[in-house]
Amino acid sequence: MLNTPISSGIPAIDTACHSLLVGDNVVWRSTDHELYSTVCLAMLQVGREQRWPLVYFRFANHTAITSAADVQVYHPEPEKGFEHFISMIHRVIASHGTGGVYVFDSLSDLQEMYFSDRMIGCFFELTCPYLRRMETIAYFRLDPSAHSCYATEPIRRTTQVWLDAYTCAGERYLQPLKTWHDPEGNTLPLFHWDADTAREVQNSAIESMVRQSPGWNEMPSTSERQIDVWDTALMRFEDLQRLSQAHSTPLEQIPELQRLWNIAERMLLSTQPRMLGLIHRYITPQDIVGLWKRMIGTGQIGGKAVGMLLSRAILRKQHPHIHATLENHDSFFIGSDVFYTFLVENDCWWDRRELHASPQNESACRIVADRMKTGRFSPQIIQGFRDLLEYFGNAPIIVRSSSLLEDNFGNAFAGKYASFFLTNQESAERRLQKLLDAVREIYAGTVSPEALAYRRERGVLDQDEQMALLVQRVSGRRRKAWFFPDAAGVGLSHNPYTWNDLMQASAGMSRMVVGLGTRAVDRTQDDSARIVAHDHPTLSPDESRQHRLDALDLQTGRLTQIPLRNPDALQLPEILLERDWRRERMARQMGITSSARIGLEQALGSSELPAVLEQIGKVLEQEYGTPVEYEYTAQWSATEPGSGYWQLNIVQCRPFQITTTNGAETTHEVFDQLESDSILIRCPGPIIGHGRHQQIDAIVWIDPESYSSLEESRRYVEAERLGQCIQTLRQQGKRIFLFGPGRWGTSTPSMGVPARFGHIRGITALGELDWMHDTLSPDLSLGTHFFHDLVEEDVLYLALRRSSSSINWNRLNEDGYSWESASQGQHSDSVRWYFPPDDQEMWLAADPAARELAIYLK
């Protein structure tokens, strides 16, 4: 059936095109909507006679093409994003099967939604071949004066038929620009369309009159047509913004500037109503123009970039004295359209889309990711990357994901996408290659099983998840062959773990380290970050200390760990040194060198750093309307011996929607009335999360003794089996309390269970035991990516310390079972589960504020 001749329903068009063929996509470039409606109605009538499906995609503001009852009308809602728009259209096409007539509203109206000709070009390159494979006839319209080459070139390259249509002096004319099956060699004459006939125009006066009529403005190759509508709108916005400044005219007195300001916010920053409200209050027109000039490609800059800019803008207005001490940001932004264009040009879009149906198919995910890692970029984008690298020179940078959904209200995507440090110490070409590799790796991360599963769990698998990128200068300074800041951390405006009654949750807290902040946001293997309550910074929840710092090795170009032993070699400021003068004097008398101990205690106890962090958290929470998490670096600037100030850099900020209630009002009564023989587990804290009193169905645990006796390779196997156990129970609707030895999510099996969060997703509460070996202690992972997963899933976290917790091991072991998979024939001695007796219920009562938890039978 493909390529079978078929009439358009209008003999004049058949003459001009030498007939249409089944599978043709026909582009009509015309300003005359009535003319386009006429040809669409004629083609629909042909389809009606063929008994084909008749489909109309309605999304533009112009009058409807048809209201016929037998034409199925679909509204693909482009305002919900490109991914939603194109996915719905493709689902409709698939649902109708082969054959059919498809008519589309004017594609030019999509500019009102996307302000990007590149995205219109991508839409056509994806949809046109699909319609052809489905053996359809499809009609599209373009406004002749609306588009740059970024739309017209891919459309002309992809379509089978392109017709320019004119209405001039009451007459209609046709000029075929492309008819791929033209037996005359595509001679492109101008035709006069008169009723059912099409005659070649022979008179030059008529030809020039028609071509100069509305619908033709300039050659497609003119410089104006090389500029995307996206840039055109922003250039106009910049001109009006300068005019407003030059004449000191208030913005509200220039309606066109106000209109373009609203458009620019949606073009570059966000379409989320809640975020747009914040953006409009704090991001100025000058800010928007400035970030546009630091962009590569078009599209939005993504959630992570918006959070960074917005937090700084809030401080600029609400706390100018703090903003004045911030390190200047000179970041670059890689627009989200670059990602989609990359997928289309490298033929990865369809494969990526198909993964949505099976996000846990790791083999398929790996195949698509590998293809993306070898993809190519256009020369224009490559030049943008070169310009970026030339600007930074040999300064280290970090390339960070900044997807449209990332760091937004309701979806953090914490740790789901990678970031890459680039030390920039090699040749220009080598630096470019490493940047390209980093970008491709982040793009490939969008099809990882973990990222796809997260999107599915959060209900955003079909939402517009384009990947923008944020390229930041790494904060810090060179210290011989190393590069790192004095300190860094992740702050929470609300402290979910007030381990001392003097502390106020509203003061916030930080997870702080010496060196790069990677050690603060990731769960370290056998090291600890400093947990800091901003209102009582000298109080620590335990005796753990940081033993190594993360730094960039400028010689190898890698992230490395350095022991905190030699302050002189690390070139740390005095405020990060803890001196024991008595010990040093005794060491000198004995002829022994004794270095000061490196730590944060002096910085926390004798400087304004905790108070400043508390102020930052409070104002950001107030403006966001919810607790926030923010990442920062801190550099000590000594003004004179013994004094100075901290220069901060806010590198990220996102909503942190933690629930902090104490649970049921009767929780305290539950603890008072518990009988000792009914208690299975009792814990005095730390307990972090949403207080609750609820029934649970199962306790699952990793037996410490069995697990510690396993070889390292076997521990990875046990993590997989644990995941199978949890998901089996979850499918049965069970509410689960899970606990085990060491740190969950660690990459080092000697420190805990190397289970990814995807393995244990769906549990109610999670406990960490400290009795696998003597040096092991639970890690208060506040502020880490792992902690974000717990918060978003409303999972309660608790540390089960041998010295203070009570576990009825006899009851659990006697009535519990080793997990066994009947379907896979797998058995595990270390993965165990417990169900309550048939005549009893199992309940969990937790009051984080009172630092008390119990699991009991009743």
UniProtKB/TrEMBL annotation:
Protein name: Phosphoenolpyruvate synthase/pyruvate phosphate dikinase
InterPro entries with a match to the protein in the record: ATP_grasp_subdomain_1, PPDK_AMP/ATP-bd
Record domain Pyruvate phosphate dikinase AMP/ATP-binding: where: 300-669
Gene3D superfamilies: ATP-grasp fold, A domain
Keywords: Kinase, Pyruvate, Transferase
SUPFAM superfamilies: Glutathione synthetase ATP-binding domain-like
Organism: Spirochaeta africana (strain ATCC 700263 / DSM 8902 / Z-7692)
GO MF: ATP binding; kinase activity
Keyword Transferase included in the entry's annotation: yes
